Amino acid sequence: MNLDIRGNYILSFLLSVFVAILAADLYLEYALGEWLEAQLVTELRRHAVSGRALIESQAPPLTHEGMDPIANLLGQEPLRFTIIAADGVVLGDSRVNGEQLRGMENHATRPEVLMALQEGWGRSKHDSVSLSKIMLYVAVPFHQPQGSGVVRVAMGIESVQFVQNKLRFFIIVASFISMLAALSLSGLSAQWATRTQRYVIACAQGMASSIHAPRIELHANDALAGLASSLNLLAEEKNETLAQLSAQKSQMVTVLQSMSEGVLALDGQHIITLMNRSVQELLHLPASAIGQTVVSVLPGTAISSLGLEPGRLLEHTFSAEFDLDKGAPRRIMAVVTSLHDQPGHVIVLRDVTEKRRLDQIRRDFVANVSHELRTPVSVLQANAQTLLEGALEDKKYSRVLVEAMDRNAGRLGRIISELLDLSRLEAEQFAMELHEFPLLVVVGEVVELVRRAAQEKQMVVQVQVDPDLVVHADVEVLRRILTNFLDNAIKYTPNQSQITVRTNRYQERLRLEVVDNGPGIAPQHWDRLFERFYRVDSGRSRKVGGTGLGLAIVKHLAENMGEKVGMEGVEPQGSLFWVSLSLAKRRG
Ligand code: ADP
């Protein structure tokens, strides 16, 4: 049974009261019983002595006829008189008569009879064989000329028992009342006596459940003051430890959630026990993935690459890469490490799509540079060789060879200078000078520059630019970008194509667009068009003197200026190349 401190106090109080009452009851019952019995014995003895006096004075014969009438005379209710001869024969009995009297058992061995004969009087309490109830017997000897015997007076002890029962009843009622009184008194006194303990317990419970619980305030001389100060100390230490733990935890959580790498922790059964935001974004996992098996939430490609199939044993540390097809295709690198001191693993995932793409670009670049440089260098070497071997003598042929050498040296020079431009741009060493100037002026200059090339292909470059537009940009950079767009439009579109330079305005921004109605570019090339050496048709590009670096330089130039470039297709056919420009704050 779970009782609080007050309950225990009340219970022990009640128990003590109950035991005290019980002891008092038992003692009282016993003492009263003894006292009543002693009174009764005195009374019975007085009657016995009177009976003896009568017998000794009248001296009737020691026969049934002589003694029974005397017994009947003396034995008025509730008394029972028995006259017993010295040999134990019952001569008279106030309750038994006639034949029954004669058939009565010999009483020589009755304890009261034996005592009376030996000690002058005797008493005992036992069941009456003839009356079948407990009786109190007192016997005294008598002597008369015909002989001697014993006069015995008996009485049922119901009266004693009656008094005892009555007393018990009163005691029970009194006990009940005292218990009730004790209950309320003990309740009150428990309330008072345990108030400090209860206060300390309530405070301790508060301290256990909250770090803001108040301290226990007790007087120094209070019995529980020592305990209270220990509890206060304990609570302070607990609060300090909790604060440290929670600071460490939030630091860990912040670090984990701020990591760009995805972190996934698995237990020994490959159930996800922890994950950060990056892993959720990377693998499109819901927060509910925690608690689920990794097999049920990760894509099949990841499971097989990481060896997470059920039943397979993972190595201590290993890494793997896999592709994700959900959403935009991505390449993920995973490093799986076993936990140190418990079964389970930590998987760190990184999106290496961009890195792999750059790796590929770098590989392509090296291959492209060597390829691009090899062709003109080979031409130079071969032609020089041919000249040295005697072609110099042939004036006409040597001119053809030297012209080819000049062309290829020029091409080599262009590639090298454009590569240098690119590397300077990438290193952001290309100094920009941003000014505000009327856009139409620069557009006019560039269109003028390419006019001849356009005319050779019977093309007209139309300009649709508002003369009032003033932009904020680097004039030289804008010239190079526009020249490149126009050069390409002329180079890669058939004769008599239409080329338009126009602007497109939205909010405070502006797009300068070069649109042609040439063959256009298939959409699969759009994304890569601005990469170095990327050409839709390499043969054609080389033929028209292209290096494949023009748009890559354009992109870097625009970005260095804080702008963007792009391309789109146009209906029904053609290409649209654009560069964004900032409008001047003050209109010219
Ligand atoms: P290139 O030196 O080869 O001209 P660019 O970087 O300037 O290099 O252009 C890349 C490729 O884009 C070109 O090789 C060409 O295939 C394609 N291209 C550029 N502009 C156009 C256009 N207006 N029409 C069709 N194709 C174009």
Please tell me about this protein's structure:
The protein has 588 residues and is an alpha+beta fold. The protein has 16 helices and 17 strands. The protein has helices at residues 5-58, 64-74, 98-102, 111-119, 158-193, 195-209, 225-258, 277-283, 294-297, 300-306, 353-388, 395-426, 439-456, 475-491, 538-543, 550-560; strands at residues 79-85, 90-93, 122-127, 134-144, 147-156, 262-267, 272-275, 317-324, 330-338, 344-351, 434-438, 460-464, 470-474, 498-506, 509-516, 565-569, 575-583. Strands 11, 12, 13, 14, 15, 16 and 17 form a seven-stranded mixed beta sheet that branches. A hairpin with a 2-residue loop joins β4 and β5 (147-156). α1 packs antiparallel against α5 (158-193), α11 packs antiparallel against α12 and α13 (439-456) runs parallel beside α14. The mean pLDDT is 87. The structure holds adenosine-5'-diphosphate (ADP). Adenosine-5'-diphosphate (ADP) is lined by residues 484, 488-489, 492-493, 516, 518, 521, 529, 535-537, 541, 546-548, 550-551, 575.
Provide a concise account of the structure shown.
The protein is α+β, with helices and mostly antiparallel strands.
| Mean residue pLDDT | 87
Instruction: Return Rg in Å.
Output: 63 Å
Tally of separate helices = 16
Low-confidence stretches: none
Number of domains: 5
Main beta sheet strand tally, sense and closure? 7 strands, mixed
Structural class: alpha+beta
- Architecture (CATH level 2) name of the largest domain: 2-Layer Sandwich
CATH superfamily of the largest domain: PAS domain
Keywords:
rod-shaped; 7-stranded mixed beta sheet; binds adenosine-5'-diphosphate; 588 residues; Beta-Lactamase; 16 helices; alpha+beta; 5-stranded antiparallel beta sheet
